[in-house]
Design brief:
The complex is a heterodimer of chains A (75) and B (385). With 75 residues, chain A is α+β, with helices and mostly antiparallel strands. Chain A contains 1 helix and 5 strands, in the order E-E-E-E-E-H. Chain A has a 5-stranded antiparallel sheet with strand order 3-2-1-4-5. In chain A, a hairpin with a 2-residue loop joins strand 2 and strand 3. Chain A starts with a strand and ends in a 5-residue tail after the last helix. The chains are: A alpha+beta (75), B alpha/beta (385). Chains A and B meet through strand 1, strand 4, strand 5 and helix 1 of A and helix 1, helix 7, helix 8, helix 11 and helix 13 of B.
């Protein structure tokens, strides 16, 4: 029910809609709930609406943090 | 898939598990509740509990909207859908939830009701637009993630001048449910088990932000880590909780920084505030009636409010007395404690709501956990309050 997935914006459409790709699957969704969307952005898609933008820098930072946390730990 | 696969790295997950094992105090136990069904699903699917030390236990919380909806609300929706002029639209998860008299939305549809499964509120608007002679009711359900799409649907219906569209609102609020669990002594101690920390909701928090949980962490001295739904997110968040417990602190931390901010989405919150207001009280399955825990349409939108427009009545309905969904939703019992589990109750023929949605504790355990060996989860001494 709360399943939401990262999708990438391919094209902006009229009426706050956008064409997005989900690992190659194309879908038209509403972007009325998020601001300043541009093609190439990653969005969190839930029940046909983008809920939020995915911050790609923070995504990398999370992975770096996780990798860092595992360095030097017990084998 | 980008921004998913990277967070499913098994080696990294095991490395984090070793960090958790090194960090835990062997002299104490750690009981963490994952509120969201999405976390329950991830924990079951990736076997994360097997990676945790024996003194770190996960308790499955009530964060699955299908699971916490009392069957009286589905009974009411079915009664409405049986009216010849009504088309009832809803998300697929609700279709198979068992309700009174052995019925469900799926069975009501077989009996002639016009009930349609939609992926999005946009689909229900399209139906209302295409079929102006039908009264199209959207059976709205969900936490803070699905509420903004419902609010927007109402705005679009007004803009498109669709007088035949209305909403049966069953939207509920995460912080209210967390508060209920933490302040209820029975639920908080869960028999012999105390909640030491919470995995906070991921996508709910994209809307309401981490700040929505700050007062709860403070008031109940309980650490809360807002965690993403991928396995690395979940297990790393458990490490963050362990560290907070060890350090004797209780604050809200944000592990899901790639999608969640402190304030959440101002735009989504604005849309919701425009359309909805707090209900005085709302019945939750397993948690009972809770004040200010759900949203109804504001009076100015009364003509789009299916409950008012069609004089809907929510009958008092009893769950199957043998079904333990209520106790499981409160974390008091595990799915395998229910005598119906894997006997008469399976995902193909669910007796209770927790077996319906893939995010329900019973369905997740049935699909991914029931053949696990006699691991530590089965050895836990979780008892009934």
């Amino acid at each position: 029910m709360c399943l939401a997935l990262p999708v990438q914006v391919m094209e902006l459409l009229p009426d706050n809609m956008a064409k997005v790709t989900l690992d190659g699957v194309l879908k038209v969704i509403s972007i009325a709930l998020v601001e300043d969307v541009t093609p190439g952005d990653y969005l969190i898609l839930h029940v046909g609406y983008a809920l939020a933008k995915l911050d790609t820098e923070e995504a990398e930072r999370t992975l770096a943090l996780i990798r860092e946390a595992t360095l030097g730990g017990p084998a | 898939m980008k921004y998913i696969d990277e967070y499913r790295d098994a080696k990294l997950a095991k490395d984090i598990a070793r960090q958790i094992a090194a960090a835990v105090d062997p002299a104490r136990s750690y009981h963490f509740m994952e509120f969201c069904g999405g976390h329950t699903y991830a924990i079951a699917r990736y076997g994360l509990e097997d990676l945790l030390p024996a003194n770190v236990q996960m308790i499955h919380g009530p964060g699955c909207p299908v699971c916490v909806l009392p069957i009286g609300r589905i009974d009411a929706a079915i009664a409405l859908a049986m009216r010849p002029e009504i088309t009832l639209c809803t998300y697929g998860d609700l279709m198979r939830v068992p309700c009174s008299n052995g019925s469900s939305l799926l069975k009501a549809r077989s009996a002639g009701a016009d009930i349609r499964m939609v992926y999005s509120t946009l689909d229900s608007l399209s139906i209302a637009e295409a079929e102006p002679n039908r009264q199209v009711v959207f059976f709205a359900i969900g936490f803070e993630t699905t509420t903004p799409p419902t609010a927007l649907a109402l705005r679009f219906a007004i803009a498109k001048d669709l007088p035949n569209f209305s909403i049966f609102s069953n939207h509920v609020l995460t912080p209210a449910a967390i508060q209920s669990i933490l302040e209820n002594s029975d639920a908080r101690t869960l028999g012999n088990i105390k909640i030491d920390g919470l995995l906070g909701p991921a996508h709910v928090s994209t809307v309401i932000g981490t700040q929505a949980f700050e007062v709860l962490a403070e008031e109940f001295d309980t650490p809360i880590v807002v965690a993403g739904f991928e396995p690395l997110d979940v297990i790393y968040s458990i490490l963050m909780l362990v560290r907070q417990v060890n350090d004797g602190i209780h604050k809200v931390e944000n592990q899901y920084i790639r999608a969640v901010t402190n304030l959440g989405s101002e735009k989504a919150k604005r849309e919701v505030a425009n359309v909805f207001e707090l209900r005085d009280s709302f019945e939750w399955r397993g948690l009972g009636a809770m004040p200010h825990s759900a949203l109804g349409l504001r009076p100015k939108y009364a003509k789009y409010d299916a409950e008012k427009r069609f004089d809907m009545v929510t009958p008092a309905a009893q769950d199957n007395p043998a079904c333990e969904c209520g106790a499981i939703l409160r974390g008091v019992k595990k799915p395998s404690d229910c005598k119906l589990f894997d006997k008469v109750c399976t995902p193909d023929s669910p007796m209770g709501s927790c077996m319906v949605s893939s995010e329900g504790a019973c369905a997740a355990h049935w699909i991914y956990g029931r053949f696990r060996g006699p691991g530590k989860a089965d050895e836990s001494s979780r008892t009934t309050a």
